[in-house]
TrEMBL record:
Heme binds at residue 439. Belongs to the cytochrome P450 family. It comes from the Eukaryota. The keyword Oxidoreductase applies. This is Cytochrome P450 monooxygenase. InterPro entries: Cyt_P450 (IPR001128), Cyt_P450_E_grp-I (IPR002401), Cyt_P450_sf (IPR036396). Keywords: Heme, Iron, Metal-binding, Monooxygenase, Oxidoreductase. Its cofactor is heme.
Amino acid sequence: MMLISFIPSFILSHVSYGLPDISLLGIVAATLLSMSLLWCVIGPKSLPTVDARTAPDRYSQLIKNARKIHRIFTLKTYAGPITILPPEYIDEVRNDRRLSLAAWFAQEFCVHYAGFELFRPVTVGDDILQDSVKQGLSNTWSTLTPRMAGDAGIQLEQAWGTKSEWQDVPLNASIDGIVQYILASVLFDSDLNSREDWLSRVTACSEAAAIALTQLRKWPPLLRPLLHWLLPSCWRLRNQVHDVRRIIDTVIAARRSRDTEKKYDDAIDWLERSARGRPYDAAMGPMVMFFGGTDTLTDMLTQVLSDLCGRPELVEELRQEVMDVTLGQNGWRTQDLHRLRLMDSVLKESQRLKPFEIVLLRRMARETVRLSDGTRIPKGSSIGFSADLMRDASNYANPNQFHAHRFLQLRDTPGYTHKSLLATPSVSHIGFGCGLQSCPGRFFAAGLMKILLTHIVMKYDIRASVDEVKLVTDGFRVKVDPEATLSVRRRLGVTVP
């Protein structure tokens, strides 16, 4: 243990932001080899094991095949082993604090390594971050709605143009840019957003974090304490985090030193109010909100646009619903967004068929847990549920088909009025999680999705540039092809306030 704790400082003394010397590489290579061999023999032994370490693009199929044979099994990946539980356990584990989202997040997002403290606010502080998201966004929603609607309209036209002829636009990049702009406007006050380079700095930090995580996760957990000092992507992340932290800390210090009664209403302020004097990372809290929000919202919107391609009749139905609600004509009101019931159903159905990941409700056991049937979850082990449970025929008719009206019709079924809403998790729809540790920003996400989709369907005709928009798989992530394009054209004479 003394040797392992010594390694980072030893490496730092020999490595700058250039290539490490050859002698160091020899030492590191020998250490990595021995640690790798050790890692290959660890992991849960009491459950059937599916080795997926050499097939990161086949996790989904391997899980499907294993579920046909085993009720419970361990999927062994290079990120570490995870126990896949059957759906009947969701009710039992969803509110069990011993099975922690924060603990899983800490391991999955490598928060204990230099540079990755960007993600640490999710894991510490007695739910400070979660409370700040819930309270901050809910308390400001009425004022945020018209502001986000205005930003959405401007950013969409800048990204897709105003030509009435068909043209191809990069689907992921254009939506990502729009979402990033809106989130930055919501999470940071004018003292940051007024900086000409602020959005580019925040975006660069977010992108550096995604790349560094992807690179580091390719290596077994036992090697990461060493490798995060060596990988160039991690060096770049540390530089970006240092840069952003310096700017945010300067703004926070200036706010606290001013003799003024000016009230702020952004993520920095929400975190301070939620902390109530407890220690927290004031600079990285808003950044992790930005990172998580951008990734989730872009994924949802690109997928629903893919689902709408080739369904012009559904697009017309959505347009008619917007006109019936007279959205925007009386200002953008929260109650009007709630009346977009078909749009809510379309978004929830899209998420049901293609959620953010193929394994959801990820948790880590803070202590050894025995479930009601005697199943043992050892301390420190990770669990999750296959997203295929949202295609279960016992819950949904024709579960593999996209049915835009599915959840709209379920609203009239006793017991489903509330569960059919996009922002309401349930044991049969876990796109936003389930239980006490559900996504705290899901109501905000649902509202913003409706604002963006309203602008898109009212202002543009859309169709796929090719026969269909393909999905790509990388580990547990399944997402719209980052290189996919969308054909769009501006509808003449149509405006949305």
